[in-house]
Amino acid sequence: MFDFVIRNALLLDGLGSAPVRGDLAVTGDRISAVGELEGAARTSLDAGGLALMPGIIDNHTHYDAQITWDPGVSPSPQLGVTTAVIGNCGFTIAPCRGRDRELVMRNLTQVEGMSLEVLRQGIRWEFETIPEYLDLLERQGSAVNIAAFAGHSALRTYVMGEAATQRAAREGEIQQMRALLLEAMRAGAIGFSTSTSPAHNGEGGLPMPSRLADENELRTLVGSLKEAGRGLFMLTKGGHTKVSFLEELAAESTRPVVVAALLHNSTNPDAVFQDLEAIARANARGRRLVGAVSCCPLAMDFTLRSPYTFEGLESWQPALALKGAAYEAKLAEPRFRDAVRSELARPAHFRLFNGQWDKVQVIESSRRETEQRSIGELAREAGNDPLDFMLDLALDERLETVFSALLLNSDEEAVGRMLRHPATLVSLSDAGAHLTFFNDAGFGLHLLGHWVRERGALTLAEAARRLTSHPASVFGIRERGALKPGCYADLLLFDPASVNRGPKHRVFDLPGGHPRLTTAALGVEGVWVNGVRLDGQTGAGQARPGRLLRDFSA
Hints:
Elements: E1 2-11, E2 20-27, E3 30-35, E4 41-46, E5 51-54, E6 56-58, H1 66-69, E7 81-86, H2 101-111, H3 116-122, H4 130-140, E8 145-151, H5 152-160, H6 171-187, E9 191-195, H7 215-228, E10 232-236, H8 243-253, E11 257-262, H9 271-284, E12 289-293, E13 298-302, H10 317-320, H11 324-332, H12 334-344, E14 360-364, H13 375-382, H14 386-396, E15 402-408, H15 412-420, E16 424-426, H16 443-454, H17 460-467, H18 469-475, E17 491-494, E18 500-510, E19 514-522, E20 524-529, E21 532-534
Parallel strand pairs: 1-4, 1-5, 6-7, 7-8, 8-9, 9-10, 10-11, 11-12, 12-16
Antiparallel strand pairs: 1-2, 2-3, 5-17, 13-15, 14-15, 17-20, 18-19, 20-21
């Protein structure tokens, strides 16, 4: 007898096959049968023609801190995610010595837009090493399945302390990091992650530790995955990091390489496609590289108190370490403004903001007449330069003005091409980070609703594959991502006619009552993890059927 059967569903197997009407049975934590089923079941659900697919695998999240106080990793489960990969970009909280906790938290506050007070109140520091951190996750359980990277910046900080943000590592320090990485791989880490992106800065504008690594350090650490015999290398690359170098690392380590964050820049529209073609050529030579792309426009809410939008600019660096009156004086300084204008006028391979002032809006201001209007429009109306207008407005309002910027991936024709490119991986939700700036945890529902139903850029079957079996294959996640007997029963039931993510809104449920942006699911009728249905409840009463994944095939 089956434990439960979902009958009369439109079955999307996650492998790209054409949808078929049928039933799916679950026994224990696994799918036990698929097709036209006659057997008895303890419970059954008539899907009424709704679509049933494997649960979404979100391969780019930053729940490393949040999961220690919120095993429900809200809002991902409600948005159809049944497996989340944490520790991307090298920004992890393990390993961490007690003396370095404040430094690690302060860096996360800067680079990932997290509140320092939230981190201080929320993180359960019941670990020091990566194996101890993984054991904590396994003990407490989680709503979804979790796989965890060993993060480069954390490894550097553990070995080098404050020097991690100041200099290249010495050979002995590199060997210590290598030993820690191999220890993490033996304990069940999914791989090694890092960042070379100039947008990634820690406290006071100092580069995140991984950005100080030289080629020898990267070759040694990525090469250690060959000794481990498994695992993949993930990095968020700066424009100076060439795909040819990453191909060398893939060849030397024999491991897959995930290249993030490939986003379309309308002011340099060919750059991302040049990277994707370089990845495709590497694939043709037998190297396993894939380009991580987003199906969402990158839009951020921000104030000038925390201007993540601009912090990757070289000309903004003099302001990053300043506070209070000194910071405000720097924003008012003509020479500082001229330097920012000059940099924005020059083309760049990748940067978040590219001087598109008509895509920057005022959201909240004491001058109500400016709200919901673009900086470009307001500056033209005032006969002013747009940078001057924005900075003057913010300074007049004690930096409380809230802006919203549409930064990258705004050209939907180009994004559609990226989503269909054979060398891409649908990714980059950043769930768990940038909580006050944006929330793309519903990326999978956006792909199913906007890109399938509204734009017809992908078939429903192909979109389901891109969210399930494809990332499972890239990351070596066993027996998940497909509706096949023997696979784990991670399931998403939804209405193709209405599925999408809802509008973003602010809630105040972080530790200490602090705010975050979230979004609701539209058209989702059920989510199951390892055969257990999640009921949407959050907090202490939420089910925790998810598992810490430690055994991978990649």
